[in-house]
Structure formats: structure tokens, C-alpha cells
Design a protein that fits this description.
Length: 150
């Protein structure tokens, strides 16, 4: 079992990551038969832009990526929407693995959020992006305390 770097672990704990991830997953949980599988990649890019972020789509790996530079730190947020199921990746790890490494419980899996339509996808992304902003803020505070970031 690999451990998380202490800064990442502390940032995740400070934002109450596990409970927020579990809540998001419970709120957006539809059957595979209901999942919105045939979304339009350009529409998703437009949705992400509408939420205030620039994103690109990696055709080879089939995920959307947001990359930002804050001060000296680079942050990336990968989003996979395969089969209408949303997988988020921070710090090179899917949220499910972040959760398992954070609490040490690999048996208690949290289902990935799923969506039936663009409206549900927007809601999922909104919540995830709030968590992302909280995560970035904590990482910056832990790495370089007492600095102002814009």
C-alpha cells in the first residue's frame, strides 16, 4: 500500500474530501442503462468553459484536462466521462484511489458519480470544481504559508 505525500494527505483531510466525494457519488448515482453515454465532447468543453475553466480533450487517453498555474505550482484536473460515469483525477490518482490511500480502506469503494443528461453533468462538475478550488487553496497554503494567491 502506497502512502500519499503528507501535503496531499493533509490538504484532502482539510477539505473533508472523503465525505464530499461520497456525498457527490450518492447524489449522482444512476444505473448503467440510464447513463448518458453519447455526450458531445465539444458540448462538454463548452460546459467547462461556462463554469470558468479552460479545458482540452485528449483523444488518445479519452479524458478532459484542466491545467492551471498558480504562483509556482501547476495543478491539473483530469475528467473521464466514459459510459456516462465520471472519474476525476488529481495529483495523478483517481479519486477512488485518493480516498483509499487517505483512509487506508481499499475495501470500502465509493462509486463514481454518473449522469443521465447534461444538466446532471453540470451539477457534478460544479461540485467537483468547488472541491478542486478548495484543494488548490489548501495545497498552496501548505506549500507556501502566508502568501497571497490570486
Amino acid at each position: 500500500m502506497k502512502l500519499l505525500p503528507s501535503v496531499i494527505k493533509l490538504a484532502l483531510e482539510r477539505i473533508n474530501f472523503i465525505d464530499r466525494y461520497r456525498s457527490l457519488s450518492n447524489k449522482y448515482d444512476c444505473s448503467l442503462a440510464e447513463c448518458f453515454e453519447n455526450y458531445d465532447k465539444d458540448e462538454v468543453i463548452d460546459i467547462i468553459r461556462g463554469l470558468g475553466y479552460e479545458a482540452s480533450y485528449n483523444k488518445k487517453e479519452k479524458f478532459f484536462i484542466l491545467v492551471e498555474k498558480k504562483s509556482l505550482e501547476f495543478f491539473s484536473f483530469f475528467i473521464s466521462l466514459k459510459y456516462g460515469i465520471v472519474e476525476f483525477i488529481w495529483s495523478g490518482l483517481p479519486w477512488g484511489l485518493l480516498k483509499a490511500r487517505l483512509d487506508g480502506n481499499y475495501q470500502d469503494n465509493v462509486r463514481k458519480p454518473s449522469f443521465r443528461n447534461y444538466n446532471e453533468l453540470i451539477c457534478i462538475l460544479q461540485e467537483a470544481l468547488v472541491m478542486y478550488e478548495d484543494y488548490k487553496r489548501e495545497i498552496l497554503e501548505l506549500y507556501i504559508p502566508n502568501k497571497n494567491y490570486v
